[in-house]
Amino acid sequence: MNKVFYCKLCVYPSTKPHIEFNKEGVCSGCVAYLNRSEVDWAKRKEKFLKILKKYKLKTKNYYNCIVPSSGGKDSHYQVIKMLEFDMNPLVVNVIPDKLAEIGRYNIENLKKLGVDTIEVTLNPNVRRKINKFALKTVGDISWPEHNTIFTVPVRFSVDLKIPLLIWGESAENENGGPLETIDRVELDRRWLEEFGGLLGLRANDLEDILKIPKNKLIQYTYPSAAELKRVGTIGLFIGQFIPWDSHENAEIAASHGFKYYKNNVEGNMVPYENLDNVYMRVHDYFKFLKYGYDRVTDWCCWNIRRGKITRREAVKINQEKSGKFPSEYLGYPLEIVLNEIDCTREEFDNICDKFTNKNLFRCNNKDQLIKDETGSLILKNKNYE
């Protein structure tokens, strides 16, 4: 493995999937953000409004678009913007396997904005089987959530003949992806398979390996090209037409009743993100095991680019908060999550070790991972140089 290095402007490591660096050592996420100053945002907004008008005329007296939702700050923002633009959105919410109490509150609050909402709750027996399988095979307990938030709303687009979907930010633009894709405005099957976090796992793998009947995997399956073409389904990132800022989204959402904690939640440096899904803390921890960064790092990078903190401050925050063992999240102990997927603590620890990149963490002279008093691993390069 090549030596790990970090972006000269933010603190993203070279181990981050899809990230690229220019000759100055600046990551593609920072390049994309710097390029925003060259964008004619007024012109892009005008283009977006024309697109919305086109679909509004197509769907007169019906829903003009679908907004995929978790009930979080960004979902609130997307719905608020659609209502501001005089659209009639249908909100499609895929309920996570373990919905936190504050997550339920925010889902109900979003409805109060004045929208019709469809809630989809997937078969928990199938879902938890997939949760454990994905944790063991690709190191992602939240694979079902990541898959279905992209497949379910698209299926409703096809079934209800609502062609336009309004997504939030483009992940490769916000987080750093291939430089040639940072201006992509559409979310389609290709984007999902490349950047949607599926880790090479597909719904038909579940059918073949886990012997789950195909008719039990309907909502995990992306519609066919023929179905999409028949309806003319298109998914657009609103963040490619209007400057995206998750912190501002949270403030806007809060002004419309969105609720979040006073203090930062575990494994993060903000109090207003990932408040719905109790499993997300385990998901983010595995990102740290594989790549040496987590959600704390993500927020540090976004805040550096927006001038909210310096890189030196980000390094200190990462040293203090990043990579902590997920013993608890949103008031729910890890044991609750493990019990629901029929996984023992010993089995979980073994899975963690299996996906840990030992090149990134300190080991003893027997090549055994060194853990601190909280059970957390220790990065070799804690200075992010």
Defining key terms:
single chain; 7 strands; two-stranded parallel sheet; globular; three-stranded parallel beta sheet; mainly alpha; 16 helices; 385 residues
Q: Output mean pLDDT.
A: 90
Radius of gyration: 21 Å
The biggest sheet, with number of strands, parallel, antiparallel or mixed sense and barrel status, is: 3 strands, parallel
Contiguous uncertain segments of 5+ residues: 176-184
Give a quick rundown of the structure.
This protein has helices spanning 28-35, 41-58, 73-84, 101-111, 124-138, 143-160, 171-175, 189-195, 203-209, 225-231, 246-254, 280-291, 295-305, 311-321, 334-340, 345-355; strands spanning 65-69, 89-94, 116-120, 164-167, 234-237, 328-329, 332-333. With 385 residues, it is mainly alpha-helical. The chain has a 3-stranded parallel β-sheet with strand order 1-2-3, with helices on both faces.
Layout of helices and strands:
Blueprint: H1 28-35, H2 41-58, E1 65-69, H3 73-84, E2 89-94, H4 101-111, E3 116-120, H5 124-138, H6 143-160, E4 164-167, H7 171-175, H8 189-195, H9 203-209, H10 225-231, E5 234-237, H11 246-254, H12 280-291, H13 295-305, H14 311-321, E6 328-329, E7 332-333, H15 334-340, H16 345-355
Parallel strand pairs: 1-2, 2-3, 4-5
Antiparallel strand pairs: 6-7
Would you write up a description of this structure?
The chain has 385 residues and is mainly α. It contains 16 helices and 7 strands. The strands form 3 sheets. A 3-stranded parallel β-sheet has the order 1-2-3, with helices on both faces. Strand 2 (89-94), helix 4 (101-111) and strand 3 form a beta-alpha-beta unit.
